[in-house]
# Entry
Amino acid sequence: MKKITTLLALLPTVLIGQSLVTQTPQNRSALLEDFTGILCGYCPEGHVIMASLEAMHGTKIAVVGVHAGGYAVPGAGQPDFRTPEGTAIDAYFTIGGYPSGVINRHIFGGEDDLGRGAWEGAVAEMLALPSPVNLGVESSYDAGTNELTVNVELYYTADSPTGDDYISVLVKEDHLDGPQIDYGPSGDHDNYDHVHVLRGYATDTWGDMVPNPTMGSSITRSYTMTIPAAWNIANCRVVAFVSEDHSEVYQTSDIAADGGTTLVIGEFAESAPVYVGVPTGTPATVNTVFTNLLGATEDYIVTLTSTGAPSGWSSELQVNGSAVTSPNTAQVAAGDDLNMDVSITPDATPGVGIYLLSVASSSNPEAPVLERAFNVISGITDLVVTHNGAEQWEPIYTDGLMQAGNTAYAAVAKDKFLNFASEGALTGVNNFYMNISWTFPSLTDDEVAALSALMAAGSDVMIAGQDIGWDQSGATGSYGTAATQSFYSDYMHATYVADGSTAQNLVNFIDGDLVFGDVPNSSIAAVFGTNTYPDQITPIAPAVGILHYNTNTNLIGGLRCETTDYKVVYFGVGPEQMSNADVAHSMVALSHDWFYGIVSVEEFDALLASTLGQAYPVPANDRITIPFSDLRTSATLEVYDVTGRSVMQKNIANGTTQIILDVAGLRAGLYRYALRTAEGLGAAKAFQVVK
# Structure
């Protein structure tokens, strides 16, 4: 591959006219170099985490898949994704295990290569740091000569901390077909879709030197390389980054190889996403200002779109004080502002809505569309929080809440939960269900800080997943911190005992527990392939065990605890691991019921006992009569099977003295019935159906 570098400019300047880079100081972006290989069975898990980080951070992160080391050596007839540059970088960072991630070539706690469980936290740490330099890039491709030209523009908002900096430019390619060993549930692949694959560098491996740049310096350079015929330019992207020598990436950019650009069309005065919680029927209004930085009058296309919001929610867009329909075209003179107000009004329907305000340049359709997100939560009482990598299990939690009869639930990714929490937008949420599954780190410092505050304020929490205890044990390779370990003992009320194995293959809910005691046993499914590690734990008083493994009552794998402030349910084996789907749903539904006092440990048989009578005849095969005494309010009679699933509902008017219930359609077995009023579900009594 032919590489050409051209120095175009190096001078202090004030940028005028069109530019690839803004002069406004920015935080760092993130470069994740994923060291991987087609023979690495754990690497697909890393690929899932990479995808979730891209979805979370958008243009603030660039991902490069570096195929190097022994796990990247192809067999006969297999494609070779290795490169000389990737091999050199792999050797420099002395990558010891795969997948490993090098984030911004920064050293974290003495380590530069991090296991996949640490990527999320490391990326967040880098994004919070200021950058001394802003980076702009544009690329073009000549199909006749197969030449790729990349122009790079830097603007320094501060002096370089260490003196000389380096510009690196590489090409990566998506959608390369090839084999992939996979230890996950999907098994090995013959035709795996490899993305972000490093193909080569347009600069030297360690970059092109920028000597001693200072604040106010503008640097422009151009790089040309010949693209091999085997590469599909349509699937190629250019990644450029600015760093110190071999270390500390300050800024990165990821654009299309053919016609990509970071052309600055303007900027929002405040670009951070908005997170608000509002009561139903109450509008949330946010003002934002956009400035034209194109150096000439421009027509901007302003669009407001929504994702996930209930259909009854309404929104309004005002541009320069006037309500407009979306999309709207607004003309703005060079350097002038576009003043916009976004108002979102939820109706009575609970939900979480994302409203995206976008601004595009009419004259420069190839330029990035600038966006600002407005996140609104309203009317939600129960919130599922899903870790990156656990998204596929989210329906188990939402189905469990549906089974419990909850109609005011929602599910969000962990990063959105943290943002809502930091803005104080979760005051209306009663209960949280942490879908951790088998992800690392199982808990993070910001996560436990948010949960601790919410629990201290009265919120209840269900936490579920395997290896949470192991991760907080301090074992080699675990990610627990002082903060997360304290949360594990002080809020989850658990002591880790031992990592499980495939030998622990049966979940047995403890007989006599008034919350989970009637849930049937379930075998543990191999949803993580051979990686089955259900935690063995010991409850810390006042917590009590709720399940054990196999027939050994000493192998405790779950607990519940009630304090003066909160209730917590902790499963050391996730509901996704239950081979019986009804059991999985019951783990969530019964946690929900206990949180709301529907299942009360102290007064389970006493609540509303004077109102709800005992059904007769018992056992029954076709009809039962249920008497009531002094029923002073309308209510709903709900009938549950042994798994906690609602199988029958009947509205009861106040003053009703008895009803006859047709149970001929129910299967033989034990059932419970209870009255639900506005205050919750009260007395629970039992009856048996025989056939």
Q: What stands out?
A: Residues 8-16, 600-607 have pLDDT under 50 and may be disordered. The radius of gyration is 29 Å. The chain has four domains: 3-256, 266-376, 382-595, 623-689.
